[in-house]
Design a protein that fits this description.
Elements (H helix, E strand, L loop, with lengths): L6 H4 L7 H17 L3 E5 L2 H9 L24 E7 L5 E12 L4 H7 L7 H4 L5 E4 L9 E11 L8 H17 L3 E7 H5 L2 H5 L3 E9 L7 E9 H13 L13
Parallel strand pairs: 5-6
Antiparallel strand pairs: 1-2, 2-3, 3-5, 4-7, 6-8, 7-8
Amino acid sequence: MLANNRLPDQVDVAYGPRAIISRFILQGDREARERGVFLSIEHDFEALIAFNKSQPEKWFPLIPVFDPAYSELGPDNAFWIAGRNRDGDIVTVQCARLYDWRDTDFEREFESLRFAYRDPDLERWPEECAFCNAPSGRRISGMVCYSGGAWYHPDYRGTGLASIIPRLSRTIAYGRWNTDYTISVAESVLIEKGVVARYGYTRVEEGLDWLNSFIGHLMNLHLLWMDRTEMLNDLVRQLSEPVEYPHRVSVQM
């Protein structure tokens, strides 16, 4: 079943240049609809985890950042964007989580695993640890949005959604929470395939190691980030250069 509300109707822009943000949200929603994808903002992370587990062959497990069993998640600090086809089936997901790091920074939160867990001492896996050698790890502080948990049904990959929905996620987060930075993490394979470039991040830094985690092995990750000014400049460019990809909307689920 399709959501009752269109995504733009669910967004209240409390911060930033309202005209630019509102125009971009309308444009992104329209571009998704042109591809047969209908977007809505969701807050039920229990439902998200259940859906994630129902797609084991198409989607890796979500990190604890977006799992209510390990993190405090609610409308005041988290949301996820669901994209559904005309039959109401979820075909894409993108999550956003707010961190108040005004008295700390990404490096400290990542290495302590507070980034991932409500109580790392109780909830981390045996021998789980993380190290941050990314040059900007200490710079990223303040109100920070982590945008991640991205997933696209295989039939909807290559349609340009990866250039649309991550941008919507961080734009909505900024308009809602007045974020100073947007960050994410990615494995090298996503950079090599050009996926990260489509997300639009201006900074990509090596130097994140996550060991003995829920994945069960060493993850060598890159830190993706952009500050508020870079994010807004990217939106202005996108408004003048809409995403051009094939509109693959005739999909059998």
